[in-house]
Amino acid sequence: MHAITVLPGVKNSARLDDIDDLKPSPGMLSVRTLALGVCGTDREIVSGAYGAAPPGHERLVIGHESLGVVEYAPDGASFSQGDHVVGIVRRPDPVPCPACASGEWDMCRNGRYTEHGIKERNGFGAQRFNIAPDAAIKVDKALGLCGVLLEPTSVVAKAWDHIDRVGRRSNAWQARTALITGAGPVGMLAALLAKQRGLDVHVLDRATDGPKPKLVKALGGTYYVGDLDGVLSRLMPDIVVECTGAVPVIGSLIGHLAPSGILCLVGVSSAKATELDLGAINRDIVLGNQVVFGSVNANRLHYQAAAEALARRVPLSHFAEALDNRRDDIKVVIDFSL
Ligand code: BGC
């Protein structure tokens, strides 16, 4: 069968390989791949900057945003032939640390977790994959190809779960306004979940046309192009979900949160020396009771929350349209049925 593989650490080593066909494995689901989402992490792996092959192997099968159909399910599994499923990306470390031992592998304490298609575990970018039933999530078939959005939605569902938890530190705090910086797939899904929470949603991106402004409008949000400082002079957000990883954006956001505001960093920056006034940042955060925190990955509860959020289908028809759009792409998806 065909699989997309890379030589981790080597730039532009991605190729379509012929690998051994998988045999059904005892206790495992046998899944035929329908679609594979491509994100910034995949591009980083292809650039040679990230990723690790499974121990004892040179190449890594990439792909962590999966969608497949169950061809075989073992007796007693809560899956049936024909179900649409998505694989959970991260698997617990072998120790396991207290977080992994309690199912919170997204909060792994020792860094020895593995990730399908990213870190020491083959991914889902093959025509078929086998997966343990407890590492798979059932997706509403009615979502069709949009089921491939489950993994990025799980990342966003975790971010919102943690924002909600931080918000509960005050009995009186009630968020009204959410600003999302970056309208890529993660940003758009963050906006979708913000809207489902009843928040007044604002989204900032660089795209002047294409599907992004349309999608934000369809969500009932306000779309801004470019000028973050201009936006922040008019808006003091209670919550910001930062999805660009752009250092100037992060620098502007700190200092413009509402009192008790929360800034959740989801975008990953590249390391670069920057001059920031840490004294001013400290004053804003301390005197404003503000919280700035990072969020990555997702555990099973977040995948389930994501499946529910997507099943609510606020405007998924538009997401489907966005999946097809070539100019100003929001999400690139490889269709394995072609
Ligand atoms: C994936 C996460 C993963 C992270 C870091 C992201 O693209 O969605 O599941 O934990 O990369 O490897």
In quaternary terms, these chains amount to single chain
| Number of strand segments | 18
Q: Look at the structure and give the CATH class of the largest domain.
A: Alpha Beta
Uncertain residue ranges: 322-327
Structural class: alpha/beta
Mean pLDDT across all amino acids: 93
Q: How is the CATH topology of the largest domain named?
A: Quinone Oxidoreductase, Chain A, domain 1
CATH superfamily of the largest domain: Medium-chain alcohol dehydrogenases, catalytic domain
Number of helices: 10
**SSE sequence, one letter per element:** EEEHEEEEHEEEEHEHEHEHEHEHEHHE
Helix content: 25-40%
- What is the annotated CATH architecture of the largest domain? Alpha-Beta Complex
Could you characterize what this model shows?
The chain is of the alpha/beta class. The chain has two domains: 2-139 and 308-335, Quinone Oxidoreductase, Chain A, domain 1 (Alpha-Beta Complex), CATH 3.90.180.10; 154-294, NAD(P)-binding Rossmann-like Domain (Rossmann fold), CATH 3.40.50. It is 28% helix and 23% strand. The protein has ten helices and 18 strands. It has helices spanning 40-46, 98-101, 150-167, 185-196, 211-219, 228-234, 247-253, 278-287, 300-311, 316-324, and strands at residues 2-6, 15-18, 29-38, 60-61, 65-72, 84-87, 90-91, 114-116, 120-121, 128-131, 136-139, 177-181, 200-205, 222-225, 239-242, 262-265, 291-294, 332-335. Strands 3, 5, 6, 10, 11 and 18 form a six-stranded antiparallel beta sheet that branches. A six-stranded parallel beta sheet has the order 14-13-12-15-16-17, with helices on both faces. Helix 4 (185-196) links the parallel strand 12 (177-181) and strand 13. The longest helix is centred in the middle third of the chain and has 18 residues, at 150-167. 41% of the residues are buried. The model is unreliable at 322-327 (pLDDT under 50). Bound molecules: beta-D-glucopyranose.
